[in-house]
């Protein structure tokens, strides 16, 4: 009889209890993750904005732990186009459909991580998150952002190996990962992407620069302040048609400067300072007809400073200090052309501020045979150096950015002259936009000649990286503000021929229960107590009004 009573209670009372428990769990889910429920109860003009609502609410409620400037306080309700930092536009393939086209949270000081649900923002072409406290790794799901044109994650706390997901973004043209904690080798496939600008400086990347460097069509490549080692790839000469600026400062490079550098007839900035390079200045440097800033200082270079370098037609700043040169041509001493020249700390007789005789012995100034540099396969030169190499500059908190330079283009960065041998880059104020036609880069005035100064190729310039959009990319059409309540004019972005077909764009998101949320990264537990980013403020400027995407 007792068993029958127990069976009766189990069969008739347990389902009711289970139903009550389920309702309680559902109520709890609504309170902790409103986006997962409300997105199916609210009205949206189209499935794109429904997906965007789900993605942004999931980000806000589960992956953002600190928002001291209240950037996301406006992220309430179904009108995602009114959210701070979220910009909408009309979809090119369906001009009557409004979509989220850009996300810009620069300098928001937000702590958190990037959840995979951000992949639901499949229409965005710009993702700017610089100067925050985002951590963890980039989710593989971001490969669904097939229209993404600009990715700026600089000055955050992302970690792990180089994020391979960026190799799967077919429309990407601007990549900025500087001032993070990425480590490991740079994938060779990176330089086969159609990127116009590559910023990887001030991470923990190591292993030598891939030989595929020369396959890149980029106009700007900055790999400074990493532990790369190895030699400068000879393939660099293949970049002669596109390369304008290359900065390999403080990368622990060895071997000689390859003569193929002389093929870079369009390069304006060439900086390989603070490395362990040896050998003479290549005679091919005579081909650097467009060079404005040339810095080979703080290396182990020897021989004679030739006159054809000092006489380059557009040269404004030539730094060859703290090497072991034993002479220079008369053209280098002439001051009529106004070239700022820094030759301190060498072994050149009759010039002030040179090394003491004890550091200019025959062994110190002996020219290095570049044929002995072991650069094949990324091997480092093992020739012993008389001078101990300086330790790597470990970056934790980036230095303050420079005061904006109110002059024509002077490059990407500016740094306070470092006391040798320590150097550090400052992140710039960046504006990367590809509105046609391509903006020309005006010549820059020489920096002040008073004392030693780091070449001015580190100064911010709002129009430095400019590339026209591919002809196949149709233009987004911007609806008038009155048509969308709280509408923000979107920053430019670019539509891609790689866009998914309309059927995929219009697909409804999966129910929330089929999209389980991942566990937060290891850094998530620390985000509430992380100090704010100090000394850096370089948010992208307001977007141009040209609707080029």
TrEMBL record:
Residues 423-432 have a biased composition (Low complexity). InterPro entries: Leu-rich_rpt, LRR_dom_sf, LRR_extensin-like_regulator. It comes from the Eukaryota. It is found in: Secreted, Cell wall. Residues 373-549 are annotated as: Disordered. Residues 1-18 form the signal peptide. Residues 433-448, 467-483, 499-521, 540-549 have a biased composition (Pro residues). Its main location: secreted. Keywords: Cell wall, Glycoprotein, Hydroxylation, Leucine-rich repeat, Repeat, Secreted, Signal. This is Cell wall hydroxyproline-rich glycoprotein. It comes from Dendrobium thyrsiflorum (Pinecone-like raceme dendrobium).
């Amino acid at each position: 009889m007792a068993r029958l009573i127990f069976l009766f209670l189990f069969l008739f009372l347990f389902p009711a209890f289970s139903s009550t428990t389920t309702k309680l769990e559902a109520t709890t889910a609504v309170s902790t993750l409103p986006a997962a429920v409300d997105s199916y109860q609210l009205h949206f003009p189209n499935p794109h904005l429904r997906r965007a609502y789900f993605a942004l609410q999931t980000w806000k409620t589960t992956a953002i732990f600190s928002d001291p400037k209240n950037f996301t306080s406006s992220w309430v309700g179904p009108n995602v186009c009114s959210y701070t930092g979220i910009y909408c536009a009309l979809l090119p393939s369906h001009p009557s459909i409004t979509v989220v086209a850009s996300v810009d949270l620069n300098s928001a000081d937000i702590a958190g991580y990037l959840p995979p649900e951000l992949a639901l923002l499949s229409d965005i072409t710009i993702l700017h998150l610089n100067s925050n406290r985002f951590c963890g790794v980039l989710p593989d799901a971001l490969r669904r952002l097939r229209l993404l044109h600009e990715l700026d994650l600089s000055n955050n706390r992302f970690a792990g190996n180089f994020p391979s997901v960026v190799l799967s973004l077919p429309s990407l043209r601007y990549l900025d990962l500087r001032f993070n904690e990425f480590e490991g080798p740079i994938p060779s496939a990176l330089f086969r992407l159609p990127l116009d600008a590559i910023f990887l400086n001030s991470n923990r990347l190591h292993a030598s620069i891939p030989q595929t460097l020369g396959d890149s069509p980029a106009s700007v490549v900055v790999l400074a302040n990493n532990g790369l080692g190895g030699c400068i790839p000879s393939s660099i000469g293949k970049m002669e048609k596109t390369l304008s600026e290359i900065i390999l400062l403080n990368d622990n490079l060895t071997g000689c400067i390859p003569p193929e550098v002389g093929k870079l007839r369009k390069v304006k900035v060439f900086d390989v300072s603070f490395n362990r390079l040896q050998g003479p200045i290549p005679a091919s440097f005579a081909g650097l007809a467009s060079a404005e800033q040339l810095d080979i200082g703080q290396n182990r270079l020897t021989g004679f400073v030739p006159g054809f370098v000092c006489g380059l037609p557009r040269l404004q700043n030539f730094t060859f200090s703290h090497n072991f040169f034993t002479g220079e041509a008369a053209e280098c001493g002439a001051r009529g052309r106004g070239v700022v020249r820094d030759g301190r700390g060498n072994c050149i007789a009759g010039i002030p501020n040179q090394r003491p005789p004890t550091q200019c012995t025959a062994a110190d100034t002996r020219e290095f045979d570049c044929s002995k540099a072991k650069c094949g396969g990324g091997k480092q030169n093992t020739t012993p150096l008389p001078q101990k190499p300086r330790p790597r500059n470990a970056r934790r908190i980036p230095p303050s950015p420079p005061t904006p330079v109110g002059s024509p283009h002077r490059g990407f960065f500016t740094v306070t002259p470092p006391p040798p041998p320590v150097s550090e880059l400052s992140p710039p104020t960046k504006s990367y936009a590809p509105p046609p036609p391509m903006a020309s880069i005006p010549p820059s005035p020489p920096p002040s000649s008073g004392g030693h100064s780091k070449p001015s190729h580190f100064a911010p310039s709002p129009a430095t990286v400019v590339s026209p959009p591919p002809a196949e990319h149709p233009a987004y059409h911007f609806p008038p503000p009155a048509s969308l309540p709280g509408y923000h004019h979107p920053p430019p972005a670019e539509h891609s021929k790689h866009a998914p077909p309309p059927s995929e764009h219009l697909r409804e998101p999966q129910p929330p229960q089929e999209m389980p949320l991942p566990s937060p990264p290891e850094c998530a537990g620390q985000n509430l107590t992380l100090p704010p980013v100090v000394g850096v403020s370089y948010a992208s400027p307001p977007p141009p009004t040209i609707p080029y995407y």
